[in-house]
Amino acid sequence: MAMALVATLAAALGAVLGLSLTGVQSGARRMVGFSGGLLAGVALFGLLPEVGEELGWTAGVLLLVAGYLALMGIDRNVYAVCPTCSHDHDHEDCASTLHGFAAPLIIAAALHAFLDGWSIATSQSASAVGLRVSLPLALSLHKIPEGIALGAILRASTSSRGRAFVWCMAAESATLFGAGSGMAMASRVTARWLNYPLAVAGGCLLYLGYHAVHAEWRRRRSWTAFLPGVTGAAGAAALQFAVEVLSR
Predict the structure, then answer these.
(1) d(Cα 150, Cα 144) in Å, to the nearest integer?
(2) Short-list 121, 109, 118, 114, CA closest to 15
(3) What is the largest CA-CA distance in the chain?
(4) What are the CA-CA distances from residue 190 to residues 117, 187, 195, 196 (Å)?
């Protein structure tokens, strides 16, 4: 639960910044691509090798693809899985409480946070020490720009900063519930069976990472939009390798 608490606190820090410092949003956008690359790097260089070794590469790849496609289907046909990273509606003139996008935003952010916490908890069963460190770190970094965007949007669509912050924390606290659910599941099944939901979580994280990097490309329409993502993915691989070496 400690790792999930760190991620929740990171989101809270982002929310405070988003509520109070409107100028910080442009900087947060640059961090979105980097943190998205971290998530993709963890999925490809951490989770996939882990489940490939435990379940076989064919099963590992298929489960990863299943998680990716499931989240893509939800994102395109149900609701945006990471609306705080991609939503571009201007709420500056919104005056009424929970106007328009705010209510579904809170629900979507809570579901996203639940998935984050569940992924953190299940990753702690991995045999690779680097994965147990890199995944929570990547998610925590991703939650800072997410919190900034969430705080800024809710501040523009609620009547006060206090109310907006309460809604931010209500949504992001789902990270802890997700982690609790993951821990409860871990206590009821063997370590091998945890690799199945871990592989699906890897596909979900891969899609979230792609989603964040692609959102930057849509804003900038330049190949330079991919540089933070590539740097983040390389950083995730280097971090996992370094932790594995130091833990020997």
Answers:
(1) 10
(2) 109
(3) 57
(4) 20, 8, 9, 11
User: Which structure tokens are listed for 184?
Assistant: 């409860």
For residue 20, give the 3-state DSSP assignment: helix
**Phi, psi for residue 59 in degrees, rounded to 5:** -65, -40
Q: Angle CA(112)–CA(113)–CA(116) in degrees, nearest 5? A: 90
The alpha-helical segments, DSSP class H, found in the chain are: 2-20, 24-42, 48-55, 57-77, 83-86, 102-123, 129-157, 161-172, 174-186, 195-220, 227-247
Question: In this predicted model, what pLDDT tens digit does every residue of 141-184 receive, in sequence order?
Answer: 878 877 877 777 777 666 678 888 888 888 888 889 888 888 88
φ, ψ of residue 130 to 5 degrees: the values are: -60, -40
Contact status, residue 172 vs residue 143, Cβ threshold 8 Å:
yes
Q: Sign of torsion, CA 116 53 66 216?
A: positive
CB-based contact 1:186 (threshold 8 Å): no
Spatial contact of 153 and 105, defined as CB atoms under 8 Å apart:
yes
Which pTM was predicted? 0.67
Alpha carbons within 13 angstroms on the beta-carbon side of residue 211 total: 26
The single-letter code of the amino acid at 131 is L
What are 145's two structure tokens?
Answer: 């720009």
Q: How far apart are CA 24 and CA 21, in angstroms?
A: 6
**18, 148 contact by CB (below 8 A):** yes
Q: Would you tell me how many other CB atoms lie within 10 Å of the CB of residue 245? A: 10
pLDDT tens-digit readout, 93-107: 444 444 445 666 777
* Phi, psi values for residue 94, rounded to 5°: -75, 130
Q: Are 33 and 216 in contact (CB under 8 A)?
A: yes
